[in-house]
C-alpha cells in the first residue's frame, strides 16, 4: 500500500535529520577518540525502538516510528566504519570499549525499552 511507503519515508526524513543534528551537536562538544555521537544515537535508538515495540502500537505508527524514523536515526554502517577506523589507527582500547559497550548497552537498552513499553501499555490498559 502507498500509505505504508509514505509512513516509512516521512519517518525516515525526520529520523535522518534528528541523527544529523544530534551528531553535529555532540561533535562540537566532544573531541576524543571514542565515537560518542554514534554511540549515543545507537543506544538511544535501541531504547526507543524497544519502547515502540513494547508499546505494541499500530501498523502505520510502527512503520512511521520504528521502520522509518528509527531506521534512519540509528546507523550500523557508521558504527562499523568507526570501529574499523579505530582498529586501523591502532586505538585498540577505544576500539574494544566501543564494540563491547555498543553491543552490551544497545541490547540492554532494547530490553529496557520493551519492558517500559509493555508496562506503559499495561498501565494504560492498551
UniProtKB/TrEMBL annotation:
**How is the activity of this chain controlled?**
Na(+) is not transported, but it plays an essential structural role and its presence is essential for fluoride channel function.
Keyword Metal-binding set for record? yes
The residues that cross the membrane are 47-73, 94-119
Which reaction is recorded as catalysed by this protein?
fluoride(in) = fluoride(out)
Sequence positions that bind Na(+)? 71, 74
Q: How does it sit in the membrane?
A: Multi-pass membrane protein
Single biological process term from Gene Ontology: cellular detoxification of fluoride
Q: Name one GO molecular function term.
A: fluoride channel activity
InterPro entries referenced in this protein's UniProt entry, alphabetically:
FluC
| A Gene Ontology term for the protein's cellular component | plasma membrane
Q: Where in the cell is it found?
A: Cell membrane
Q: Which UniProt keywords apply?
A: Cell membrane, Ion channel, Ion transport, Membrane, Metal-binding, Sodium, Transmembrane, Transmembrane helix, Transport
Q: Which family does it belong to?
A: Belongs to the fluoride channel Fluc/FEX (TC 1.A.43) family.
**Primary role:** Fluoride-specific ion channel. Important for reducing fluoride concentration in the cell, thus reducing its toxicity.
Q: What is this protein called?
A: Fluoride-specific ion channel FluC
What gene name does this entry carry? fluC
Amino acid at each position: 500500500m502507498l500509505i505504508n511507503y509514505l509512513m516509512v519515508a516521512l519517518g525516515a526524513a525526520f529520523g535522518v535529520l534528528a541523527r544529523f543534528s544530534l551528531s553535529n551537536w555532540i561533535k562540537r562538544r566532544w573531541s576524543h577518540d571514542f565515537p560518542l555521537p554514534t554511540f549515543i544515537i545507537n543506544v538511544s535508538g535501541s531504547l526507543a525502538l524497544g519502547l515502540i515495540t513494547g508499546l505494541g502500537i499500530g501498523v502505520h505508527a510502527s512503520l512511521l516510528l520504528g521502520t522509518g524514523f528509527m531506521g534512519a536515526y540509528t546507523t550500523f554502517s557508521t558504527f562499523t566504519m568507526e570501529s574499523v577506523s579505530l582498529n586501523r589507527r591502532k586505538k585498540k582500547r577505544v576500539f574494544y570499549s566501543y564494540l563491547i559497550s555498543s553491543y552490551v548497552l544497545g541490547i540492554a537498552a532494547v530490553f529496557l525499552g520493551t519492558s517500559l513499553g509493555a508496562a506503559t501499555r499495561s498501565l494504560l490498559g492498551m
